[in-house]
Amino acid sequence: MRGLAVVLLWCIGLSCFSQEMAVDSTFVDNSVVVEDTLQVVLLTDVMENAIVHQDSTIRQLMIDKQMGIQRGKVEVDGFRVQVYSSNQQQIAKNESLMLQQELEKVLSKTVYTISEPPFWKVRVGDFLTREEAVAYKNELIVQFPELQSSAYIVPDKIIIVN
Q: β-strand 40-42 against 73-86: which pairing, if any?
């Protein structure tokens, strides 16, 4: 147990040192001088045999940032298929979470459990148009006929990846 505590303190010390280097370091020739410590790390010693593997996505993100392009998840107006809604608090919460888990096992679309007191709702998908949502609702009813009476299209803020 004592050995674990020593290793943990050593890791915390390394973490603090690396954060300190990032904040309070200055470059002199081929070395980094870290203020408030007496250590000098020679870059040539550290980087001589280093091989950096970088995913091409990182490079693209850096270029996008430099050009002012924002990529990622964006919230826009759209539609979802609502398959469950109830205002019986504890029962609704449990049923909505169970339904979400069941649907996530089978569906390729994202399933959302939403709490808008006093209602619990389960909605499926992120569709830009009502027509896309209707088409998906029809596929969903074929796969889950028990949802026919409770499934309908609702406008919602959806998440798209650009």
A: unpaired
Asked whether the beta carbons of 151 and 111 are under 8 A apart, the reply is no
pLDDT digits (tens, 9 = 90+) for 108-149: 899 999 999 999 999 999 999 999 999 999 999 999 999 999
104, 112 in Cβ contact below 8 A?
Answer: no
pLDDT digits (tens, 9 = 90+) for 9-64: 444 544 444 444 444 445 445 444 444 444 444 555 555 566 666 666 677 777 77
Region 73-161: CATH code:
3.30.70.1070
Measured CA to CA, the distance from residue 146 to residue 162 in angstroms comes to 34
Torsion from C-alpha of 58, 64, 68, 70, nearest 10 degrees: -80
Count of other CB atoms within 10 angstroms of residue 106: 10
Delimit the domains of the chain by residue range: 2-51, 73-161
CA distances from 123 to 85, 94, 96, 150 (A): 9, 15, 10, 11
**148 near 141, Cβ under 8 Å?**
yes
Q: 83 exposed, middle or buried (CB, 10 Å; 0-12, 13-18, 19+)?
A: buried
Half-sphere exposure for 118 (CA within 13 Å, toward CB): 6
pTM: 0.56
